[in-house]
Amino acid sequence: MATQPSATTGYTYDELMLKHECPWAKHHHESPLRLSSIIDRCRELNLFDRCLFVKSTKANDEDILLYHKESLLKSLSQAPCENIEQLKEFCRKYEDVYMNEFSFEAAQLAVGGSLNLLNSIMTNQCRNGFALVRPPGHHAMENDMNGFCLFNNVVITAKTALEKYNSKRVLILDWDVHHGQGTQYAFYDTNKVLYISTHRYEYGHFWPNRVESDFDAIGEGDGKGFNVNIPLNKTGLKNADYLYIFFNIILPIAYEYDPDLVLVSAGYDVALGCPEGEMKLTPDIFGHLIHYLKGLANGKVMVLLEGGYCIDTLSESAAWTLRSLLGDPCSPLQSCVNPDPIVKKTVACCKNVLKGYWQSLKIDLTDEGEFWIEEARRKRALAPLVNDHVRPAQYDLTPTLVVKQTEEQKLKIQQDIKRALELAPHRKPLERGRTLIVYDEAMKKFSSRNHCERPGRIEAIWRGLRNSGLDQRCTMISSRYATKEEILLVHSDMFYEFLKSTKTATRRELSELKGALRSIEYSNDVFDNALLATGSCLNMVDAIMSNEGGNGFAIVRPPGHHAHCSMDYGFCYFNNVSVCARYLQKNYNLQRILIVDFDYHMGDGVKDVFYEDPGVLYISLHCADAFPPNEGHPKDSGKDKGLGFNVNIGWLSFDPPAVDADYINAFHHVVLPMAYEYNPEFVLVCAGFDAAEGDRIGWGKLSTCAYSQMTHMLLSLANGRVLEVLEGGYCLSQLNVCGSACVATLLGDPPVRCSEDAAKYPQDLVSLRTIDLIKNIHRPFWSSLFSIPVQDDSAIDQLAESLEQKAMIKN
User: Going by C-beta distance under 8 Å and a sequence separation of 6 or more, which residues neighbour residue 793?
Assistant: First the structure.
């Protein structure tokens, strides 16, 4: 029986933060209900019972002065809260700020609680955490309160990480619908913090209406290239749009940066129903975004609450965030297709101005995006942008948000929210170990003298699991032999009977079968061994589908992905993964199955089985000119109904060999966009480790990092139903550590961080050459792959004329 994991997620909040409210507008949208609704929802789901509570204490002046000036601290501490009229006059000095007699202490607690949680993470008392704090902070500047924000919680937290805990690099991701200008200003000239912000901009017409919130504000001095603004120039954007941004900009840059800590300014005003943001992200997407960030910084991720003003989706979004931090499976999103052309324009602009600083952004050619850069700048020129040098003597008092919606529009939004919540119900997490393993010593019986596909392969993986104690954290599934009926789901009766005949064949008869021509060896044990491998995988499938576990790793041999319907091939006899896929289709009526194959050799047998079947999306990452001959070229993309569902990421050259970053970038740019568009119900992995450095057959330079990172990324799909099945890998020491890395990741441990600088950067002759080719081939089939909207030659003239007319009308 697997044991319960210890608490690894911390959280902090304080009841006093609920007393901070607007004294002249009791129904102000930045209200105590924002925080209390999150607390209530997380308690309702029993999430806090699984977390470590970190007490909030008031930050001292020294902490606050890490960023803010003493004059601001003094002014805030002496605010005339006892006289409402004097207080109003005080707040008019700042844009969109309110206070009452509890606000200063609440702001101190927000900073202090964040720093206490940071300490718990950095001292390994917990792995990650959620600072449930208010007032929010990311608009607050060095000497200026702004936008409901008094102190900048995330800036002070980042500076503390750098100065007290010796972090070298901190990533701040800000997905609040408003640009966090205070955070940007704090780190604009340093490379010690990478600040990435996605925010509503509308070419400068949306608050805070600043030119430096646009895509071309990329930092200065040492910080040039380390300030990344991704402006959203329309409302109504959806999950597909944010995932498009994540996979094309945020994740590639973040992995290349390789932070020691990830901080998230989590504003949920981008969620469906929020009247401030007017976006349409469903609450469950935040679990996916957090999941990917957990792949960085050895899992050290700290989320700080910022905005969010639709109570229903705010509380639900925060709950999905906390569940993801806890390691619960992500709720399957509805198919993420057709990112908005406006978003594609923005991404093209961002890539164009940043490609000189980030190797991972050079994968896509962006010269055609220069037209959209010109369009964006011309439209921005018409916006009422803020000029800090011309500051008003006083601002209007922060108003209560007036929602200008018809009753019909309000009803539609409520229906959309109701449907979104129904499509993503909260399921109770598994009480037992969620990761299943199968291993049977009987699979060592089949052997061929001096052959690299030897019994020691599975023994090496099993020994690695036992030595690290991972086996005790998993649930063991019994092995079994596959039935003839199950084998015939993929293989022909003639081939089944032929292989069965080897059980009783004499040594001479076996030698005359000439299997060596197909890289095949025969013995009297191979038939039973192959049946045991396939049947054991099917037991794993049944266990996952019946929720006995969430995912699994099948330590089986012989491998299977080269085996064809009527022919054994390349050390493979029965095609284990293909039989599993057909079994899922027949017994569980699954309509969409994703098979990812990261073996050094392309799985030609799997490809042939599903070549015309859109019910299986087969994606293989392999060396294009390795075994099997004449297979695995990127242009081979399927047939008839299966066209576009066979994806060969065949590295066109392994000179130099592929490194971790090449595979990780292939996932960001190709595998994940396709996978989310496909929306699989189950993920099968052909887990070959022969691209690892030192393998006897493959010629790669992958480390445990690549294998654990790929595993981690796949776990966001199909409600976490991922089954990895051993294929190749012939270096016993690499099988030992790579197999353990995958199982640890399946269990929810942080994926392995890249240990060598060279492995962080995709290579020109590998990634940049191959991935761009793959996108060009498959773009007609997959709308989520990067593309630049086209324009005709006269478009720029038409744009100029249109903007001139608008300018005349405005003036």
Answer: none
Alpha-carbon separation of residue 249 from 180, 229, 280, 303 (angstroms)? 18, 10, 20, 20
230, 198 contact by CB (below 8 A):
yes
Q: What residue segments make up the domains of the chain, in order of their start? A: 12-384, 438-809
Residue 476 near residue 438, CB atoms below 8 Å: yes
Those residues with Cβ within 8 angstroms of residue 794's Cβ, 6 or more apart along the chain or in another chain: none
**CA 64 from centre of chain:** 32
Q: What is the pLDDT of residue 675?
A: 98
Helix (H) or strand (E) holding 734: helix 732-746
Cα angle for residues 450, 632, 592 (degrees, 5° grid)? 105
Question: Of 646, 655, 598, nearest to 621 (Cα)?
Answer: 598
- For the domain made up of 12-384, give the CATH fold: Arginase; Chain A (3.40.800)
The DSSP bridge pattern shows strands 616-623 and 9-12 to be unpaired
CA dihedral 317, 747, 660, 703 (to 10 degrees): 160
Report DSSP letters for 310-367, one per residue. -HHHHHHHHHHHHHHHHTPPPPPPPP-----HHHHHHHHHHHHHHTTT-GGGGGS--G
Cα dist from 434 to 52, 474, 588, whole Å: 21, 7, 20
- Say if 12-384 and 438-809 have the same CATH topology: yes
Helix (H, G, I), strand (E, B) or coil at 284: coil
Is residue 807 pLDDT above 80, yes or no? Answer: no
pLDDT band at 754 (very low <50, low <70, confident <90, very high): confident
Q: Tell which phi-psi region holds residue 355, choosing left (phi > 0), alpha (psi between -120 and 50) or beta.
A: alpha
285 φ/ψ angles, rounded to the nearest 5 degrees:
-65, -25
Q: Are 369 and 351 in contact (CB under 8 A)?
A: yes
Average pLDDT over residues 587-599: 98
Q: Which two tokens stand for residue 24?
A: 């002249």
| CATH domain 438-809 topology | Arginase; Chain A (3.40.800)
Q: What is the pLDDT of residue 793?
A: 52
> Residue with structure tokens 């206490």?
116
Rounded CA gap, 179 and 410, in Å?
26
Q: How much is the pLDDT for 388?
A: 73
Whether the per-residue pLDDT at 792 is higher than 80: the answer is no
Q: What token pair was written down for 755?
A: 């240990």
How many whole angstroms from its chain centre is CA 778? 22
Residue 798: predicted pLDDT: 63
Which residues are marked as active site? 139, 562
Q: Residue 597: CB partners within 8 Å, gap ≥ 6?
A: 561, 603, 606, 618, 619, 620, 621, 622, 685, 686, 688, 727
Partners of 436 in beta bridges? 475, 552
**What's the chain's length in residues?**
811
C-alpha 786/C-alpha 779 separation (Å) is 8
CB of 606 closer than 8 Å to CB of 578: yes
Instruction: Give 353-380 as a 3 state SS string.
Output: HHCCCCHHHHHCCCHHHHHHHHHHHHHH
- Cα 781 from Cα 647, distance rounded (Å): 11
CA atoms of 711 and 734, how far apart (whole Å): 16
Q: Which of 86-90, 588-592, 759-763 has the lowest mean pLDDT?
A: 759-763
CB 95 within 8 A of CB 120: no
| Statement: residue 764 has pLDDT above 50 | yes
* Each residue's pLDDT tens digit, 569-590: 999 999 999 999 999 999 999 9
What pLDDT score does 806 carry?
A: 56
